[in-house]
Design goal:
Layout (H helix, E strand, L loop, with lengths): L2 E5 L12 H7 L4 E3 L8 H10 L3 E6 L19 H18 L3 E3 L11 H21 L3 E4 L15 H11 L4 E6 H7 L3 H9 L4 E6 L15 H15 L4 E4 L17 H4 L1
Parallel strand pairs: 1-2, 1-8, 2-3, 3-4, 4-5, 5-6, 6-7, 7-8
Helix pairs in contact: 3-4, 4-5, 7-8
The structure holds ligand LPHNJNCV and magnesium ion (MG).
GO molecular function: isomerase activity
Organism: Piscinibacter gummiphilus
Protein name: Hydroxypyruvate isomerase family protein
Length: 267
Amino acid sequence: MPRFAANLSMLYTELPFLDRFAAAAADGFEAVEYLFPYEHAPADLAARLRDHGLEQVLFNTPPGDWAAGERGLACLPGRETDFRDAVAKALDYAQALDCPRIHLMAGLVPEGRTRDELRPLYIDNLRRAAEMAAQAGREVLIEPINTRDIPGFFLNRQDEAHAIVQAVGAPNLKVQMDLYHCQIVEGDVATKIRQYLTTGRVGHFQIAGVPGRHEPDVGELHYPYLFDVIDEVAAQCGWQGWVGCEYRPARGAVPGGTSDGLGWMRR
Ligand SMILES: O=C(O)C(=O)[C@H](O)CO
Ligand SMILES: [Mg+2]
């Protein structure tokens, strides 16, 4: 089985955020990821990781004004300074949390602009972010996201993401391959795992059932088969990354709602 990380933004939401670390450890997780750490002091988060023997394996750069609808800054004209400040802030947290990788959210295509127009700016921003991260000894990731969940998101497909990674040409820039989004946008998931994991350019996986984004054993994707594919290819190419459990438990934010749904992992 691959190594699973609990996504604390989506799992254990019946608990206050800082209490979710203990809950994940009690359920057998050895690593966590989440969207944003910035409401908490790095020292408080580091203490939770230490107290519960957890590794921090991923989080996102600040996405801009989330409440106003922003979903990342990397493709946005005129926001280059904000983007670099966001990367710098994320790298400070990564250092404090000993987190090896951060996700650079691409952002929404602004009204009246096209993806083709924005591509050179996105590539420049990623190149600069990869340089900053390399100096700090970290990886940076980009993630294709489906436009049903985030309408207008700049980056949607695995092939686009891998073409961008090649164009940037930085060894520490990789793709965050979320199999939930991959299935919704393009399908043929097992073949794509084989195709891309062997390139050394997949930095992290995420999973959820499709279409409900609930537990991986609910929905149209057969995860036991996909986990075998990841294991097989990882053994061939020496990949040692994590699979983030980024789903909303079907029972919702009720006591035991996450733990009771972990049968898929225990099996
Ligand atoms: O939505 C997703 O799948 C993610 O992984 C992002 O972190 C969204 O913020
Ligand atoms: Mg994801």
